[in-house]
Amino acid sequence: MAEPVATVAAIQNAQFERVTLDRARDRATRDLLRSERDQRFRDDIEDQIAADALNAQAAALLEARDDTEQAIQSLEATQAGLDAAGRLTDQLEGIALAAQNASTAVEREELARQFDQVASQLDNLVGDTSYQGTNLLDVPADSLRVSTSDTPGTEFTVEGRASDAASLGLGSAATDYNNFATQADIDAALSAVQSAGSTLQASAQSIGINASILEVRADFNEDLASVAQTGAARLTDSDPYESGATLQAVEVRDALNIESQRIAARSQSLIVDLVSNSF
């Protein structure tokens, strides 16, 4: 009878040791989880701070992009005004050339009147070439300043240039060119008109270059903002692959634990049966 009693005592000791080990394991697990939770908390705070900084940078870049795109629209309006002004100077040149072929003073006086009328329309046109209150062609001409970066104080400036008739060097046909009375008067008008046309072409070229620069900058700001937003998302969003792997590991661990419990239960049953049969 002593041997079965000893076997039962051994089983009881084993069960006690298992309970003790389970408690120790639980304490160790809680300590580990607490340590991991604290570390994740610290990491989450650092990641959130970094993500907030990246999101702030992206917002500033997108704001700069919007400002730049508005500046581009202003330059396109200016370009349209210069193109129209160029067509008006072409008309002025055509009128002056027609004066060369006029046979009477009356005809030349009528052409001089038309010349001054077109020049007046040129003044009206440049006065209307405005976008959101900015006019780079009027007298005095405005300057266009635009923030092109997320860095405060970073600006791109386009200086306006007055392009009315007087600023372009065009005189009055009635007074400055004496109603085209002589060939010298006509030549003076032609020279002034051709010089004005060259000035308008140079201004249009400059505006086009500046618009191209701003377009590159707007695209760059948008691309860089996208990179910053992606970086912020990666710092704060959970990885679905990592989460899936973690879940799978937990499920495997639980399955192994259940199976080990079944084995232990069967082992205990066999021992109990062995003890019972020995009596």
Task: Report on this structure.
With 279 residues, the chain is mainly alpha-helical. It has a domain at 52-235: Up-down Bundle (f41 fragment of flagellin, N-terminal domain), CATH 1.20.1330.10. The chain is 77% helix and 4% strand. The protein is built from four helices and two strands. The model has no long low-confidence stretch (mean pLDDT 82).
Descriptors:
single chain, 279 residues, mainly alpha, f41 fragment of flagellin, N-terminal domain, two-stranded antiparallel sheet, 4 helices
| CATH fold field value of the domain at 52-235 | f41 fragment of flagellin, N-terminal domain
Low-confidence stretches: none
Whole-number mean pLDDT = 82
Quickly name the level 1 CATH class of the domain at 52-235. Mainly Alpha
**Percentage of helical residues?**
over 70%
Please list the strands of the largest sheet in the order they lie side by side.
Answer: 1-2
Terminal Cα separation, in Å? 7 Å
Number of alpha- plus pi-helical segments = 4
- H-E order: HHEEHH
Major β-sheet annotation: 2 strands, antiparallel
Number of strands: 2
Which homologous superfamily in CATH is the superfamily of the domain at 52-235? f41 fragment of flagellin, N-terminal domain
